Amino acid sequence: MEKLLNFINGEYAEPSSGQFLDNYNPSTGEVDSLVADSNEMDMILAIQAANKAFDRWKKRPLKERVDYLFKISELIEKNADALAEAESRDQGKPVSLAKKVDIPRAALNFRFFAGEILHHKEVSTDVDGKLLNYTLRQPLGVAGLISPWNLPLYLLTWKIAPALACGNTAVCKPSEFTSRTASMLGEIFNEAGLPPGVCNIVLGRGETAGQTLVSHPGVPLISFTGGTATGEKILKSTAAHFKKVSLELGGKNATIILKDADLKKTIPGVINASFLNQGEVCLCGEKILVQEELYDEFVEKFVEATKAIKVGDPKDIKTFMGPLVSKQHYDKVTGMIEMAKNDQGKILVGGDRPDLPDDLKKGYFLNPTVITDISNCSELHQTEVFGPVVTIQPFKYSADAAKWANNSEYGLSASIWTESLTKAHKLAQSLDVGTVWINTWLNRDLRVPFGGFKHSGQGREGGEHSIDFFTEQKTVSLQL
Ligand code: TXE
After folding, report:
1. Rounded to the nearest whole angstrom, what is the distance from the C-alpha of residue 226 to the centroid of ligand 1?
2. What is the distance between the alpha carbons of residues 160 and 144, in angstroms, rounded to a whole number?
3. Which atom of ligand 1 has the smallest separation from the CA of 227?
4. Residue 175 CA: which ligand 1 atom is closest?
5. Residue 118 in this model has a pLDDT that exceeds 90
6. Is residue 53 part of a domain?
7. Ligand 1 pocket list (CB less than 6 A)
8. What's the pLDDT tens digit per position in 261-310?
């Protein structure tokens, strides 16, 4: 059976223990490859390789570093079809979505941060012509980059590109559920001529490989995207070494629809915000709040649009939703639907499995699910489902919408749908979240700060914020 291997110091390597994890295809429920189950020793080898490469990498002329990033971006584009198919096979997302979003975004991450570092400027201040202050930036060393399973290549490259652009070297730990595209990156790095050790990829479990990376004293910064509980563990593990840590964690995001929303634009937008990527995007709006006057009409049209969603083979161009990523995750999501039923929730559509051909019968497919009539205080309104399950609740005034939107330990994002931009702006001001979209969702501009309030994370990445994170800034004060 095919083995997905580590990429350390420019070479593919088996894990030192010889142990592998079963890698399931979520569409069929069958094991279709094996993933290196790396241990502490593998991770230490990767950290040593990255550490050794750091001194030369940080001294390379800026243009040279940037040229590598542009080359990697081109190669991702050249291999886009193979990468999209691999992503879909591992993660379950439709191939069409991977081709349209994940892989182009991965290529863009390298191009964007190459441009960002090329155009980066520092400031200087003059004090009466007698004192000149200016700032310098320097990379920190080995960056530990840990990514989740929902947008595997997209989120990993979102970390690799700025880390390398700033002159750090990297050790990556992709999710054990979706290691395939990460393992393909090694070949791309070699074809781009990236010097050995500059970017290493260690596959395996979080509690072994991941934990070694976050606790190792030779890794001064950690960029993590994943679950909030893991984020908390990482903070504790890194505290002893005062590491720089950026955490992008979960969300329980609200979609707020005011009574004057144009449903022609709103319904397709909210369908995307609810069910894109099987609802496995940390920015998905799981909690839909609709102003009373529009509630009935919205529910009727939204349910109709949900029923029209095609769930099935991710290879089929017409498929909008593939299977959930894993059996564990499928059990978690269906468990939350049971919780809604126990809370007297009314399931208007979904909650069941689609009827599929024999080869997909054991896949982790779930129909998009819409639930109403559960109390605002229900646990389902606080806990992240991370699947194709949304609740709809009515509200009277904008202030009530803000209250229910903020009623969660998370604070990642929200979307507001209305024709009144003044109302939308006021509402945006009252939401405790890192990103508010108005009449749109998931529209990402890589220059703007991205991150969460409260338990949705700490720190911001994107544009100059990533440069801030992946460098230390130094002030030089010169008496003239
Ligand atoms: O994520 P984990 P899981 C949410 C979502 C999901 C829940 C758990 O609600 O149901 O998190 O998902 C690595 N030290 N999100 O369990 O475990 C792990 O190997 C170092 C939100 O899959 O957080 C993987 O590479 N690393 C989300 C990465 O952390 C550790 C995306 C994420 O895995 C580690 C995914 C440790 N001790 C899930 N333990 C988002 N914000 O986009 C695990 N890892």
Report:
1. 4
2. 9
3. 11
4. 25
5. yes
6. yes
7. 146-150, 173-176, 205-207, 210-211, 214, 225-227, 230, 233-234, 248-250, 282, 332, 384, 386
8. 999 999 999 999 999 999 999 999 999 999 999 999 999 999 999 999 99
The verdict on 440 and 470 lying in the same domain is: no
For ligand 1, the distance from its centroid to the CA atom of residue 279, given in whole angstroms, is 16
Considering the entire predicted model, what is its pTM?
0.97
**Where residue 429 sits, what CATH number does that domain have?**
3.40.309.10
Q: At what angle do helices 80-91 and 152-165 cross, to 10 degrees?
A: 120
pLDDT at residue 430 in the model:
98
**Ligand 1 atom closest to the CA of 204, numbered from 1:** 19
CA distance 280 to 455: 18
pLDDT tens digits, 397-416? 999 999 999 999 999 999 99
Query: Residue 176 sits in which domain range?
Result: 3-249+456-479
Residue 307 CA to ligand 1 centre (angstroms): 31
Non-local (6+) Cβ contacts of 80 within 8 A are 99, 103, 104, 107
What gap in Å lies between CA 424 and CA 407, rounded to an integer? 19
Told to judge if 282 belongs to the known catalytic residues of this protein, a careful annotator would answer yes
Verify that 368 and 285 share a domain, yes or no. Answer: yes
